[in-house]
Amino acid sequence: MKPHLLFSAALALAALAPLSSHAQAVVERVVVAAPPATVVLSDADVRTQLSLAPRAVVVPAPLPGATVKTTTTTTTVPRRYNADRNVVVVTQEDKTVELPYVTLPVLFVKETAELLDQESRAALEQVAAVIREVSKNEPGTIFDIEGHTSTEGTEEFNMQLSAARAQRVFEELTQRYGVPASVLSAHGYGEGYPQFPNGNERQKQMDRRVLVVRTR
Fold first, then answer.
1. CA atoms of 147 and 130, how far apart (whole Å)
2. Does residue 214 contact residue 99 with C-beta atoms inside 8 Å?
3. Which end of the chain has fewer beta carbons closer than 10 Å to its terminal beta carbon, N or C?
4. pTM
5. Over the Cα atoms of the chain, what is R_g?
6. Where do the domains of the chain lie, and which CATH numbers do they carry?
7. 50-106 per-position pLDDT tens digit
């Protein structure tokens, strides 16, 4: 056999030979990727949060002569999201209220209002059952579906996208899961209230969210 043929045969045998344990580990780390974690809503947590009625809170007035520094041109923040307590603090005229909310673990096809997977539908079904129960036991209850986006993209596109996603959840809850339309509303807030305005991709994904907020 010619030398170059011997060399080619040796390469072929080397390719067929079992990988060393170190090489196997490297290949596995590259090829085998862990599936994304699925966020599962707790029935007890959802029921507890959405059973809380909005409540008025007392906000201390600034001391006479005190300067209020803000990052915007207004001196008050109309909405403030407390992710630790899952409440929206809303200021209207001279009244401030806390609105309890839950974040829906729903996923959408990128840049659309189409639901991505069956897990998203399961989450909607779960929340719908709680909304029906609470609204039946407490007549007059109202829940608002809020759509939010990250700061990625144009302001106009994000506003339209957030509104479309809020509307899609509204339609799913009312048409598919039997929630009375009279107890729901839907609004899109675009990129107006990001939790991570300069965040990485994982944090931006968290900003692309849909909330169910109890407003009454």
1. 20
2. yes
3. N
4. 0.69
5. 25
6. 1-33 (no CATH), 37-214 (3.30.1330.60)
7. 777 676 655 444 434 433 333 333 334 578 999 899 999 998 777 899 999 999 988
